[in-house]
Amino acid sequence: MSTPTNYHMSLAYFILNKLELNSNFYSCPENWTLSEADRIKRPYLGVYFMTSGSIYVTLYLLCFSAMLNRDLIRFPAFKIMISLALCDIPSICVNSLATGYFGWNGIYFCDYPRLIFFLGANGFGLWLGCSLACITLAVCRISELNPDLNIRWVFRPPFIYFLMLLFFLAPFYGVFLTKPVIFRPEFMSWFFDPGTGTSLSDPSAYYNINQPVNNAILTIITLSLYTYLVSYLIRKGTHLESAQFLRTQRQVILQAAIICFFHSITSFVYVYMQFFYSPEWFIVAAQIGWQICTGSISVIYLTLNPTIRSSVRKMVCPARFQQDNRVSYVSDANWERQF
């Protein structure tokens, strides 16, 4: 194929081509086999990713169930958080559970080409959705915190529903209409080039311009938004001395620092390692960063969000342990609306 396009290397092409991968780009040797001795296995990293991924998924599902409460879902921030969860949870299944299992067993693309291609398409597409939702959530928090910006109308019906539609159009494009990432056990990570060595095309055909563009935009905007958020809270804190505000200030700054750091660093590192030589530890760190970007949100919710923490406690703890720790939805909702 002289002029490859995203479509010819996409999941949509795979589906419409009777579940057959494009042999010009994703071919494997006939009767391909690899002995156990020749496989590169990463048992320790495999255990880490599967174990931590299972914990992240369990915690996130609990948080997701709490966010579906009808008393909470009417708030714009929770609508965005639910959209983010719908991208994050399946992402963890790819970047943690599947990654750990494949690494543990030393599974290569040619072992299960269709499965790995499908998971890689979802992994990349869902990352686009996570990126957009994270940026929108930051803007929503800023709009609630600083009413002088006059952008709250964007997060009210019916405009909020157009935003939520974008949260699904972005991953739809990434999943079905562009090139997927492919797992490679020798790096314990996902690359656009499957590394089979049998492609009829130039290796540059696997470059996906959507990734550097998305990650560059994510890094710049995320850094800018959370820098503004933190600086605004610091300025406001010099005029307000209430204990409630100081507690809120510390929580939001910590949450901003965690989200900003991992998203920005992971976005940059994952682009770098796709185009330039990177040592093994660097690549593994990038993979862990991707996992933390999607999975640690649940930990942030449980530690810094009293509304979700209270709801999850009511779901998992016996009633006798809840008597002294009840938090009303009304007070929590008002607290959430402050940021």
Automatic annotation (TrEMBL):
Membrane-spanning parts: 45-68, 80-104, 116-139, 159-182, 216-234, 254-275, 281-304
InterPro entries in the cross-refs: 7TM_GPCR_serpentine_rcpt_Srt (IPR019425)
Keywords for this protein: Membrane, Transmembrane, Transmembrane helix
Keyword Hydrolase: no
Transmembrane helix recorded as keyword: yes
SUPFAM superfamilies tied to this protein: Family A G protein-coupled receptor-like
Coiled coil, from the record: none
Name of this protein: G-protein coupled receptors family 1 profile domain-containing protein
Organism from which the protein derives: Caenorhabditis latens
